[in-house]
Design goal:
Elements (H helix, E strand, L loop, with lengths): L1 H25 L23 H12 L3 H23 L5 H22 L2 H22 L15
């Protein structure tokens, strides 16, 4: 009898510990888009609102009003495509990720094409820092080397 109660308690404990992890894998992160990274102030995980991203790029790249309008249009389009992709359950996670990367690269290429040579240089630096940050994050070294946040101008 005691063994049976102990077994039930152990099973219940294991379920109560494992259930949140299983649910976390199934549920999309609701707050991922709105929580800034504490490791790098000003950087965010996930998609940023196109208007906010445009304002950030305007500040950092000194975009003209014409560039701002075009950049926001590009970012809004890619944002809509990403949202549609999130809703498409017919694709495997790997295919969905590949399409998202294509959308992201296409938007980056379109934005870069709008910039003058000085802005392109700054854009390339920003992208290199982003790539380095992503590589560090993927390899598990995200916190091992302190890096300065992106320069705020």
């Amino acid at each position: 009898m005691l063994k049976q109660h102990l077994l039930v308690l152990v099973a219940a404990g294991a379920l109560s510990i494992a259930a949140p992890f299983a649910a976390a894998q199934d549920a999309p992160p609701a707050d991922q888009q709105s929580q800034p990274s504490h490791e790098h102030p000003g950087w965010q995980r996930g998609a940023q609102d196109p208007a906010q991203r445009t304002q950030e790029l305007t500040k950092r790249l000194k975009l003209t009003s014409d560039q701002q309008a075009k950049v926001q249009e590009i970012l809004q389009s890619s944002h809509s495509q990403m949202e549609a992709l999130h809703q498409d359950s017919s694709l495997s996670q790997q295919d969905r990720r590949a399409k998202m990367m294509d959308i992201h690269k296409g938007a980056n290429d379109q934005v870069r094409a709008l910039l003058d040579s000085n802005q392109q240089k700054k854009w390339d630096e920003m992208q290199a820092k982003r790539e380095q940050h992503m590589e560090n994050h993927r390899s598990g070294n995200a916190g091992s080397e302190p890096q300065a946040p992106p320069p705020q101008q």
